[in-house]
Amino acid sequence: MESSHHTEPRRDHSADIVSPAAPRSVPDTADIPGWGADLDHANRPGYPMERTPPRLDNVHWSAPEDQPLKMEVFHSVERPGVTPVFGTSAPPTGLSGRLRGAAYKLSENDIRHWLLLLLADRINVVEGVAGDLRQGHVPNIFAEMGIKSEWQHNRAGLVRKVAIASAVAGASYWLIKRRRAGRD
Question: Which residue of 9, 16, 66, 88 is 20 to 30 Å from 140, comparing CA positions?
């Protein structure tokens, strides 16, 4: 059976080693794929697409009108104001909203900014489940997590996740039980 995998012959690089006293020669780079692609635009597959998009003619404005600001919209402290367009479907509320407000008072290069946003996301999930329960709707957490699809398409990954979660839960239970037994 013939293999479709083509291998290039090995090149002897011992000739490329130049002693300090010897004059330097330009190495042959023609056989290196992609070498010098930035030199000739014909060698760049994306080059024809790299052009300035056409400008709109006959418009009545020089810049689009800003979206009206009717609620609190977070923006980076590095920006002087909010962007012209922003989402309003999920305004910040509750503890997660206050955490996001605290995060956006910090610079984006501060790790606390990102950690607060991650924490706010996790708290927002809990707030969402609590809100569903308040409205009398019991959420199907396993369906929302995609367990059925995961079982169909990534069974090994799901089993690994369940095993890890079980080990963490078991170890946590054991540590809590041991700590309580030590107090008695």
Answer: 88
